[in-house]
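User: Hi! Is it possible to get a structure for several chains at once, not just one? Here's what I have:
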Amino acid sequence: MNVETSYSGTTAVATVSGRVDSANAKDFDQELRSIIDKGVSGLVVDCSGLKYMSSAGLRVLLIAIRKTNAAGGGLALCRVPDHIREVLEVSGFVRLTKVFDNLEDAQANFSN
Amino acid sequence: MEVRYEWDVGIDGDEPRRVAEQFESLCIEHGVPMGVVFKFQLALDELLTNVVSYAFGQDAADPAIKVTLHLTDNRVMAVIQDNGRAFNPLLDAAKPDLDLPAEDRDIGGLGIHLTKAFVETLEYERRDGWNRLSLVQPTEAHQEENA
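Assistant: Yes, the chains can be modeled jointly so their relative placement is included. Here is the combined structure:
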């Protein structure tokens, strides 16, 4: 798992790649917490390079959704591979966060 | 095609990943459709993660976890066995309320929820001090989709 982040004001784009499971969910959690702790309220998670995500990854996303909601922004996902989108649908996460087909629309979600 | 494989799994947080990744490689090598591979891998990972995390206390005398895999042309089958405390995830796991807002959602139970949704046949039995979970997924329907 690797996370690369770019910042623009209070919005950040975290591009996650590889595999997120119970073995490394703590690392993913720390990455997202450190981004939000920098004052980010609108977090876009670009999933284009994501190969695999289990419920351990969903739990990390849920924490990040709560934190960004509390900061007055939110979390948006984009470019989610089909098999992972199904995980989001079955777990009801599509009702907790917006899922965009492309990065630009996800970023625009947080622009004024 | 008929492939059998067996893992002895340690009580270690990295073990479910080792099994899941080897499962994926074996399936790809033997032409199992990727849609089946992903869902089954997730189920295997979630169930094994539960066993590794919760089945054994600190003082478990002789902990053992075994996974057997059986691939044929029309199905994927796996059996997870452990000699830990009796636990039937199909009945005993918390059921998540998927309609709650993020602030009220419980973070537990999602793994079993996904597993039930992703695997067609899932059975549990407790026998002679062992938990035994069997998972069966047909592959033919998916092969037709991909044809």
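The interface with chain B takes residues 19, 21-23, 52, 54-56, 58-59, 62-63, 65-66, 69, 83, 87, 90-92, 95-97 of chain A (CB under 8 Å). The mean pLDDT of chain A is 97.

User: Great, thank you!
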